[in-house]
Specification:
Helix content: under 10%
Number of domains: 1
Distance between the termini: 5 Å
Oligomer: single chain
Number of helices: 1
Bound molecules: zinc ion
Order of helices and strands: EEEEHE
Structural class: mainly beta
Mean pLDDT: 96
Low-confidence stretches: none
Largest sheet: 5 strands, antiparallel
Strand content: 25-35%
Radius of gyration: 11 Å
């Protein structure tokens, strides 16, 4: 799945954020992040760093398990 934010530059991959046991869908280029695969739209992304911050952690503290690219 191509990222709608960076216009063909990035591809969306799926991860599990182990700290929170949630699925995230992240662009490998711009790190735009979505929580719902069915609603990956330009209008509703959140930056990964912002999402982590909201959840009380930073990159170093986050445990992200890559589940591969989303097709
Ligand atoms: Zn992107």
């Amino acid at each position: 799945m191509i990222c709608p934010r960076c216009d063909g530059q990035g591809v969306i991959y799926k991860v599990i954020l182990l700290n929170k046991q949630v699925l995230l869908f992240i662009c490998d280029e711009c790190e735009a992040t979505w929580l719902d695969k069915d609603r990956i739209e330009l209008a509703n992304f959140i930056d990964l760093s912002t999402f982590l911050e909201i959840n009380g952690m930073n990159y170093e503290e986050s445990e992200i398990e890559n589940q591969g690219y989303v097709f």
